[in-house]
Write a structure and sequence with these properties.
Length: about 525
């Protein structure tokens, strides 16, 4: 009645994903007796089919989860290192790696999905991939957000004839140049690839014929990724990083994941009684934006910190100095992206997807994965239906940068899937896409939900902002004009977008759990085709 999506709750399981067909794929696995760790592969592979501009088995990502049988939080990192074959000396600026074969990093997603299933799942890989195989073979009607993405990217890719022919053959129908709402997209080559993986396992990619096909095509396109690089892909189980916020323990993956920026921002804000302020008023937003920009600067200046440095960054003494800077009212000017200003306001923020799943057994997981930019590198491998990532675009290749990405080194990744606990029980899985804005927009949603008490769906729908390099702040124009003017007077280079909603502030999906009743509540972002589904 008020134009909002209703609150969706269940006792039997919950899947929140960026596309309804992917959410339904996960719910189907739960209804067939699978658990969270089986459903991940079903949701992720279905997303590979229905949002190929965001998702691919050839991407990379990470997962944070509550393992009910072990009563603990765990992290699985499936972000492979910078390949040993990476010709760093060829590049001086990030833009040189936006598209093409040289931008492709080793694919980690498939290895991550399979490791979760191996460690804790109970269904076969064939069962898990079945929904995605059916979607790819039978086809699906393209939804609204897909129309936008395909039709935005098609003319850009046409500027690269070396990439466009294979891309168009895979995704456009009968020589067309665009797609329409409801148009059926069939991907028989991807279906065949997924069937082979289901039968042969992940080594079909990392040590087998599929890997040979990919690396041979990249070599022909001038790329340097090798079978040796693929064979070194190995997901890693890591210990989570955590910080207290309003009586909760918020957990994120440790570095080289850059989620510590999110925790640092929460640590700064924990000393401000935001809930007593006017929601979306000048004081509330000024404090949050200032804290976000300070934390981004710390992350950029201390990229991939060692444990000792990380402990110092999150220490009471260091955080108190940042709180004092928030309180002093002086304008804050600084980067939010990489070591040097990289992206002007409004540049596409990267194409990532995040989904959250809970099952009736008490397991809860948040996965964030990506292929980098829209359609990644733009390289579609003939005969496979696979679009390859461009994650080396997120490497730091700038000469003189203290964070320069060396061959074989860890690849810092601007992702931050989160898992919150309270009194030792899981209460929230929350994640979002958005490149370097991920650690910014999750803070804003957390404040809406925890400090102001908004239901999870309403907290995700609340207007958000993306902070860019310098002083620029892009806000959704649902923030009152008077508040925007007041924030400008305080030194924020603030401007409102025209549409009221923008993907530049993320596309969040979340599942909460009530420890007392076991009630699971899902929430999805209307900024995308997000939906929740239950078994």
């Amino acid at each position: 009645m008020d134009g909002r999506r209703p609150t969706m709750s269940s006792l039997h399981g919950m899947v929140a994903a960026a596309h309804p067909l992917a959410a339904q794929a996960g719910a189907r696995i739960l209804s067939q007796g699978g658990n969270v760790f089986d459903a991940v592969g079903a949701v992720a592979s279905a997303l590979n089919v229905v949002e190929p501009f965001m998702s691919s088995l050839a991407g990379m990502g990470s997962a944070i989860m509550w393992v009910a049988a072990e009563k603990r939080v765990r992290v699985l990192d499936f972000v492979p290192p910078v390949p040993e074959s990476f010709p760093l000396e060829r590049f001086t600026q990030r833009s040189e790696l936006e598209r093409g074969a040289l931008a492709v990093a080793p694919p980690g997603n498939l290895a991550g999905w399979c490791e979760l299933n191996r460690a804790y799942g109970r269904l076969s890989l064939e069962q898990i991939l079945a929904p995605a195989i059916a979607l790819a073979q039978d086809g699906f009607p393209i939804a609204e957000f897909g129309v936008i993405e395909f039709n935005e990217q098609a003319p850009l890719l046409r500027e690269r004839p070396d990439l466009y022919e294979n891309w168009a053959r895979n995704y456009l129908r009968d020589g067309g140049t665009s797609v329409t709402l409801g148009q059926i997209l069939r991907q028989p080559e991807l279906a065949a690839t997924l069937r082979d993986i289901a039968a042969k396992g992940p080594d079909h990619l990392y040590r087998g014929a599929l890997g040979e096909t990919i690396t041979s095509h990249l070599k022909a396109q001038g790329g340097t990724l090798t079978m040796s690089d693929l064979a070194k892909v190995a997901p890693r189980w890591r210990e989570p990083l955590a910080a207290d916020y309003r009586g909760r323990q918020v957990h994120v993956p440790p570095p080289a994941c850059e989620g510590f920026q999110f925790l640092l921002t929460l640590r700064i804000l924990d000393d401000f009684d935001l809930g007593k302020l006017e929601r979306n008023g000048t004081e509330h937003l000024d404090i949050v934006y200032r804290a976000i920009r300070l934390a981004a600067g710390v992350r950029i200046n201390n990229n991939n910190p060692n444990p000792e440095k990380l402990a110092e960054i999150l220490s009471d003494a260091f955080v108190e100095r940042l709180r004092a800077r928030v309180r002093d009212g002086k304008p804050i000017d600084g980067p939010t992206e990489q070591w040097m200003p990289q992206a002007p306001a409004g540049e596409d923020p990267g194409h990532t997807t995040s989904f959250s799943i809970a099952d009736r057994e008490g397991n809860l997981i948040c996965v964030t994965q990506s292929i980098g930019s829209p359609f990644g590198s733009g390289v579609v491998v003939p005969g496979t239906g696979i679009t390859l990532n461009n994650f080396l675009y997120w490497a730091d290749v700038q000469p003189g940068s203290p964070n320069r990405s060396l061959p074989g080194s860890e690849l810092p990744m601007c992702m931050s899937p989160t898992l919150s606990t309270k009194d030792g029980a899981p209460v929230l899985a929350l994640g979002t896409p958005g490149s370097y804005g991920i650690m910014q927009t999750q803070v804003q949603a957390m404040v809406q939900h925890v400090d102001f008490g908004l239901p999870l769906q309403h907290a995700i729908e609340a207007p958000r902002a993306r902070l860019w390099d310098g002083r620029e702040v892009e806000v959704e124009n649902r923030i009152p004009a008077g508040t925007i003017a007041a924030l400008a007077e305080r030194g924020h280079g603030i401007f409102a977008n025209e549409g009221g909603w923008t993907m530049r502030v993320g596309g969040m999906q979340a599942v909460s759990r009530d420890p007392a009743s076991g009630r699971l509540t899902g929430a999805c972002d209307p900024r995308r085709d997000g939906y929740v589904a239950t078994p």
